[in-house]
Amino acid sequence: MENRDVRRPPRRTDKVVCYVTTGDHLLVVTHLDVPLTEAGVQVPAGTMERGETAREAALREVQEETGLADLSMVGVVGRDLYDIAPTRDEMQHRRYVHLTTQQDVSQRWLAGELDPDGGGEPQRWECWWLPLMHAHVLAAGQGRFVHRIGRR
Questions:
Q1: Whose CA is closest to 101, among 1, 38, 19, 41?
Q2: How far apart (Å, rounded) are the C-alpha atoms in residues 107 and 95?
Q3: How many CA atoms lie within 13 A of 103 on its CB side?
Q4: pTM
Q5: How far apart are CA 127 and CA 114, in angstroms?
Q6: 101, 106, 102: which is closest to 62 by C-alpha?
Q7: Whose CA is closest to 96, among 14, 31, 151, 29?
Q8: What is the pLDDT of residues 107-138, one digit of tens each?
Q9: Is 44 within 8 Å of 50 (Cβ atoms)?
Q10: How big is the chain by its Cα radius of gyration, in Å?
Q11: Longest Cα pair distance anywhere in the chain, in angstroms?
């Protein structure tokens, strides 16, 4: 009899990845309590709540994670499936949403939120503006559709 690795399919979650721009700069975050070599440079992102559209989720996630509320919606610029193994056994159905704001790109500020999984310490990060031409450094596949926001 053949010895096969029989595993359950990964859990599927609906996610939103938020490209917030002001001029030719992209809003990014770097975690303060997780080494850069583990978390990398990221954009605001998170899980969509039941019944929520990608646009609604993007507005909520950006406000929760950064405190920014003065946002204009441009639209969804892409979708994909992203396997985040080996971090978790999870397949993410991602919607990439472009939003704009009028912020001073020299600004840096601290933000954070409680552990989204319900346990552990609060997460803290620094928010800052990265020139779009350097957005190739985004971690975990978050830069997948960043090339589409420069064309709008």
A1: 19
A2: 27
A3: 26
A4: 0.88
A5: 16
A6: 101
A7: 14
A8: 999 998 876 566 667 889 999 999 999 999 99
A9: no
A10: 16
A11: 65
